[in-house]
Amino acid sequence: MTSTPTPVQPSDRVLEAMQISLRGCEELLPESDWLKKLMRAEATGQPLRIKLGLDPTAPDIHIGHTVVLNKMRQLQNLGHTVIFLIGDFTSLIGDPSGRNNTRPPLTHEQIKANAETYYKQASLVLDPGKTEIRYNSEWSDPLGARGMIQLAAKYTVARMMERDDFTKRFAAQTPISVHEFLYPLMQGYDSVALKSDLELGGTDQKFNLLVGRHLQQEYGQEPQCILTMPLLEGLDGVEKMSKSKNNYVGITEAPNDMYAKILSISDVQMWKWFTLLSFRGEAEIASLKAEIAGGRNPKDAKVMLAKEITARFHSAAAADAAEQDFQNRSKGGIPDDIPEVTIAGAPVGIAALLKQARLVESNGEGNRLIDGGGVRIDQVVISDKGLKVEPGTYVVQVGKRKFARVTLTA
């Protein structure tokens, strides 16, 4: 049986796949090798194996995490095999990427709990029917001590110290534990076990992805290409999107909150979000950008982006409802569907009322919001932190998006 020869020149379909691969990406290395892989896949009908590894270090995914998932979906739509790898083994080590000290490893129970929700959330972006789910404990646990030593022999300390965060920590005399060297080795070994053709990751993962290329060569495999995606800035437009920075949009957030948060980003920032988060074609985005430059209201484009993302994680109907809800609020209106709470023991102090109605986390937060003019009862701004609210039913508002219909009883 003769093998199908790889064409000398790429077809239009391959060139389109290459353009899709490059959209919004930071680096594709080596580009020429990826083009060859795409040409071979088309000639043989054999899909390429595309790997994304995620350590379940937290139970929830925000839309910053979906930048790389979107790229996976685009490649999945081209017919290639997507491998969603849950790093249950590597999570036990802890990846120090981008950090100047050791990240504490997670317990097995924490990893299991986080992993249970990870794939369910990722499936809102990926096509579950065309996704291969793997756990790297499948091949990492059986390695044992002997296998780990043999693996470690395939990479030098000098090469490991080329990793930027290790270099900086060593120069600053910040401790580096030996087990941290195992993380990039084990992530690289994942590529060997999965026979990966392409591995995706954030820019902070570039070193680890390159280790995978090296180890595949050591094990006699064709080395994978690597594709890094930029880190998405959060709602502030400055810091990387992060829950700890409170500048994130969670993909399980209520549609009204998701829509409103996306609408709050700057006019400049939204174009990067279009490139990295929208599934609209690049030509359509370029045309829209030209219209905005020609005088069209930038909010029109932002509404399109907010509705597209909200519909992806909820539904088109939910996105439409969120748009209407936002318009009502911007006019000072009260949303149709707000929580209803009954609180006994009136009269109740205003800060305690806000906390019991679950509009704030603490009395202190409530008092700070009152000082800032962020609390309203029946649309009247409350400025008296000593206010005692008498029995009755009130619409209580905190900030722009939090409402509750509160009934106070004696």
Automatic annotation (TrEMBL):
PROSITE patterns the record matches: AA_TRNA_LIGASE_I, S4
Catalysis performed (reactions): tRNA(Tyr) + L-tyrosine + ATP = L-tyrosyl-tRNA(Tyr) + AMP + diphosphate + H(+)
Residue positions binding ATP: K243
Domain RNA-binding S4: 348-409
Subcellular location: Cytoplasm
Motif ('HIGH' region): 56-65
GO cellular component: cytosol
CDD domains, per the entry: S4 (cd00165), TyrRS_core (cd00805)
GO biological process: tyrosyl-tRNA aminoacylation
One MF annotation (Gene Ontology) recorded for this entry: tyrosine-tRNA ligase activity
Annotated EC: 6.1.1.1
Superkingdom in the source lineage: Bacteria
Motif ('KMSKS' region): 240-244
SUPFAM superfamilies (UniProt xref): Alpha-L RNA-binding motif, Nucleotidylyl transferase
Record keywords: Aminoacyl-tRNA synthetase, ATP-binding, Cytoplasm, Ligase, Nucleotide-binding, Protein biosynthesis, RNA-binding
Pfam families referenced in this protein's UniProt entry, alphabetically: tRNA-synt_1b
Record-linked HAMAP family: Tyr_tRNA_synth_type2
PANTHER family: TYROSINE--TRNA LIGASE (PTHR11766:SF1), TYROSYL-TRNA SYNTHETASE (PTHR11766)
Main function: Catalyzes the attachment of tyrosine to tRNA(Tyr) in a two-step reaction: tyrosine is first activated by ATP to form Tyr-AMP and then transferred to the acceptor end of tRNA(Tyr).
Homology family: Belongs to the class-I aminoacyl-tRNA synthetase family. TyrS type 2 subfamily.
Record's subunit section: Homodimer.
Official protein name in the record: Tyrosine--tRNA ligase
Species in which this protein is naturally found: Scleromatobacter humisilvae
Gene (UniProt): tyrS
